[in-house]
Specification:
alpha/beta, FAD/NAD(P)-binding domain, 5-stranded parallel sheet, 3-stranded antiparallel sheet, 17 strands, about 40% helix, about 15% strand, globular
């Protein structure tokens, strides 16, 4: 979440307060009821009249009283739990731990009294593990007192490139790098992005195998690199007083005098793709790579203004393609192709596209005047670049996955980027002719 300045990240309490204020505002409209502390049990069997009206009943349990009650859904049930994040504080450890060892969830770390002489073992190399290390360093823990279990290295996004006023323009680097002569196979792509300053790696001598959209800035990266005791032997299988059994063998370690911090929960789980728009329900998934919240807003807008009367579920599913959260580097390919497909097609839908360009959750809506002018001047070139990049990604998809993509990139009835680019060029030429005529008139009358 962005706070008062474009570079300041909001702390957790401010995000929680914001959600609370939004919910209160929504409840005051009389159109929203918030039932906290309830558990969804599933749909009830439809009666004959409900089949005729399209209504459906769903069972809910009050977790405080343990009483069940039924909710009537007139339109569609929206399932936002399909991509539910794994939360460390409520999940059991993924590996056996011998009794007596000091293993805590990462949430506990943030309320624990930190002493400068404590020793810590951070288990997990995702964004949670990185945040835990940065937290400890900020509280004066010596880097030499931190041991880091890194099962796999991942490419990291450079947050310094994400100033909202120009982030959309900076994102063109994905296509500029893709179309570089040096990128003749997909394995060359991420190093090219790194060369252009868009992504980082933790250790310059190790080629990452993961891509999960974790984001750090250059200062945080340097802090992480101060931790030298890094163990790369795969995932932890179990922990004993004398060490850890890991995927690549047993590692003898001093465990008893360490606080073991479990950072292994997956905040962005990868689930099989299912249709978003289904009979009687909507299943929220990412439409834009690693952007679940913005995607949910876009899905909501599409359903609100298009509904079943304007486009059927099948037609909407052809436009709004979900993409799985990437895990491996090669997962970038289908995620980017699906994201590009949806965003370009949405742009041609007047009541959805115009709203999306103004939506605060869409980074493009924060572009400043300079960025917008640069976009306009390069629009023809950008659209051509996107189509060429799409073609190259299709090639890489076949090489990496052994098959073509399973969807139509440009469905019938929608313009390709080249078609749009041709229209843009005609508009640009018309504008130039108009300006030239205007200048000629001014000169002739002076």
């Amino acid at each position: 979440a962005i706070s008062h300045s474009s570079s300041e990240l909001s702390p957790g309490y401010r995000v929680s307060n914001y959600f609370k204020e939004v919910m209160l505002d929504l409840e005051q409209t009389g159109r929203v009821l918030h039932w906290g502390g309830r558990e969804y049990l599933g749909s009830a069997e439809k009666s004959t009249s409900e089949h005729q009206t399209g209504f459906s009943r769903h069972n809910i349990r009050d977790l405080l009283t343990n009483k069940n009650f039924t909710v009537m859904v007139r339109k569609k049930l929206v399932n936002t739990t399909y991509l539910e994040a794994s939360i460390p504080s409520v999940n059991k450890f993924k590996f056996p731990v011998s009794p007596g060892l000091n293993v805590i969830s990462v949430n506990t770390l943030f309320v624990k009294k930190i002493h400068g002489k404590d020793n810590f073992t951070i288990i997990g190399a995702g964004k949670t593990g990185m945040d835990a290390i940065i937290f400890l360093l900020a509280r004066g823990v010596d880097p030499d007192r931190i041991r880091w279990i890194v099962p796999n290295d991942a490419w990291l996004l450079n947050r310094d490139r994400f100033d909202p006023s120009c982030a959309a323009y900076n994102d063109l680097v994905y296509f500029e790098a893709l179309l570089s002569d040096s990128v003749d196979k997909f394995s060359s792509y991420f190093p090219e992005l790194e060369k252009r300053g868009h992504i980082f790696r933790l250790d310059p001598s190790i080629t990452p195998t993961k891509w999960r959209c974790a984001t750090v800035n250059s200062e945080e990266l340097e802090d992480l690199r101060t931790v030298k005791n890094v163990i790369r032997r795969g995932r932890v299988l179990c922990i004993t007083p004398t060490g850890m059994n890991m995927e690549k063998g047993i590692t003898e370690l001093s465990i008893k005098n360490h606080v073991l911090v479990d950072c292994t929960s997956n905040g962005m789980p990868s689930k099989p793709i299912v249709p978003i728009f289904q009979e009687g329900r909507i299943v929220i998934q990412s439409l834009i790579m690693c952007q679940v919240v913005a995607s949910a807003a876009l899905i909501g807008r599409a359903e609100a203004v298009m509904g079943d009367d304007e486009k059927s579920d099948a037609e909407k599913n052809e436009i709004f393609l979900p993409c799985s959260s990437p895990q491996l580097c090669r997962d970038f390919i289908p995620a980017m192709l699906r994201s590009l497909h949806t965003q370009l097609l949405v742009g041609s839908l007047s009541r959805v596209g115009s709203w999306w360009r103004r939506c605060r959750l869409n980074v493009e809506s924060h572009s400043d005047f300079r960025t917008n002018v640069k976009f306009m001047l390069r629009m023809h070139e950008i659209l051509k670049m996107m189509e060429a990049g799409s073609t190259k990604l299709h090639k890489f998809h076949k090489e990496e996955f052994g098959k073509e993509v399973d969807f139509d990139m440009w469905p019938e009835g929608f313009q390709t980027p080249s078609d749009i680019a041709h229209t843009v060029r005609l508009h640009q030429l018309s504008a130039l002719v108009f300006l030239a005529a205007l200048v000629a008139i001014v000169i002739a009358t002076t």
